[in-house]
Every structure is written in structure tokens, then in C-alpha cells.
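Quick one, C-alpha cells below:
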């Protein structure tokens, strides 16, 4: 496992659980609004956390923490992700996986074997705008669509979510996403926040509150939608 970051406690990353967060290095997407750019382009294996460090910590925190969020980067890029999760599950923890949905076979395997308890899949944009929004080629879209279908089978708790920028997303785009994932239990819109180390241009910004609300209202015609981070 290439583990580039570790947050020892979070009340935000795993809904309704006190968890820790493991950040894996590397991603096959190049989203300009990515707020974890160092996990994508500045990977230093010498400073990586070892599996043993993480597992030793989890052993000591049994009864205090009850969940582990595995995020990135893209965790399913890791060839030994399944074995790592098995070790975490053996300690009694619930596991949440964050993914961009580009590895449906791996996602299905983890669900089939009941190794993950919650999935958060990022929907980068409407299908036709994926290449420019995620920095990928169109040939990856069948994999993304397959992952959406897998989650819509409702065999694991999950959410879809979209980080929204004024430069890349319109109300129509959000409507097209909502039509695409219609039938999902929950969908979240997250206004872009500049972390100071994004991949793309420095001029990115979140839509204003009115446009975010318009996006939420439009999406709610098809799927239960909330703006995350806004009361």
C-alpha cells in the first residue's frame, strides 16, 4: 500500500461514525479542482506510512474509533487494497471507500465479499463533460457508468457526490447528472473550496449560493439532493 497521509480522527469523512482517514497516493484522473494535488503529483515513497503503522494504531484505538475511511488519490489503484481492507476488517472496523468509479471490477469484488460498508463515488460532471472536467479520455466512461450501476443495485450503503465549480458546472450539467444517477438514495453537491494546492488553474471558484440552490432544486426533481457544508 502506498499510504501518503493519515488523519487519526475525523467526524466528517465517514457519516455517523468516529473514524480515521487513510490517504493513498496516485490517481488516474487529473481534475483541475482536485484539493489533494500532492497525493496525485508529488508522491514521496520515502515518507509514506507503512501498513504496520496504520494497523498498530487501529489496534490501540479499538473501542474509540469505529470506522476507517480510505481515500486518495484513487484507492482502487492500489494492487493490495483488498488485502489491506481485510486486515482492517479483522480488527472490527467499518470501512468507507472513496472512489472515482474507474475500477468497477475491483469495486464489485469488494462489495461482493462484504469488505466495504460505505462507498462515496465522485461524479465529476455530466457524461459528455467528463474528459475536460476529469482530465481523462472518453474510453474510461463505460467503467464509470458500470460503477454507477453497481452502486444502484443497493448492495452497500453509498452516496454520489459532485464538487461544483463555477467554471465547469452549470445547472443543466447537474440536472443531467441527476437524470443519470436517478434511483440513487442520496446525492451531495459540494461547493469548491481552494485548499491552496489544487491541480488546475488558480482562478477556480464555487458557484454563488443562489446558483448552488438552483442546482440543488433542479436535481431534487430526480433524486434526493443536498448541498454539503451549507445549513
Amino acid at each position: 500500500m502506498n499510504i501518503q497521509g493519515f488523519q487519526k480522527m475525523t467526524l466528517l469523512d465517514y457519516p455517523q461514525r468516529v473514524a480515521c482517514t487513510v490517504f493513498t497516493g496516485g490517481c488516474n484522473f487529473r481534475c483541475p479542482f482536485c484539493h489533494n494535488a500532492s497525493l496525485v503529483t508529488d508522491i514521496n515513497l520515502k515518507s509514506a506510512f507503512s501498513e504496520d503503522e496504520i494497523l498498530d494504531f487501529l489496534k490501540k484505538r479499538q473501542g474509540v474509533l469505529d470506522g476507517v475511511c480510505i481515500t486518495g488519490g484513487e484507492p482502487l489503484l492500489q494492487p493490495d487494497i483488498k488485502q489491506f481492507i481485510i486486515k482492517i476488517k479483522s480488527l472490527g472496523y467499518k470501512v468507507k471507500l472513496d472512489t472515482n468509479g474507474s475500477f468497477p471490477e475491483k469495486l464489485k469484488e469488494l462489495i461482493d465479499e462484504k469488505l466495504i460498508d460505505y462507498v462515496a463515488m465522485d461524479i465529476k460532471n455530466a457524461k459528455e463533460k467528463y474528459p475536460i472536467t476529469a482530465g481523462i479520455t472518453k474510453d474510461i466512461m463505460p467503467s464509470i457508468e458500470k460503477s454507477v450501476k453497481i452502486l444502484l443495485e443497493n448492495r452497500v450503503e453509498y452516496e454520489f457526490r459532485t464538487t461544483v465549480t463555477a467554471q465547469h458546472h452549470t445547472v443543466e450539467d447537474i440536472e443531467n447528472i441527476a437524470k443519470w444517477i436517478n434511483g440513487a438514495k442520496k446525492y451531495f453537491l459540494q461547493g469548491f473550496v481552494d485548499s491552496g494546492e489544487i491541480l488546475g488553474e488558480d482562478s477556480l471558484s464555487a458557484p454563488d449560493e443562489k446558483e448552488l440552490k438552483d442546482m440543488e432544486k433542479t436535481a431534487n426533481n430526480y433524486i434526493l439532493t443536498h448541498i454539503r457544508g451549507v445549513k
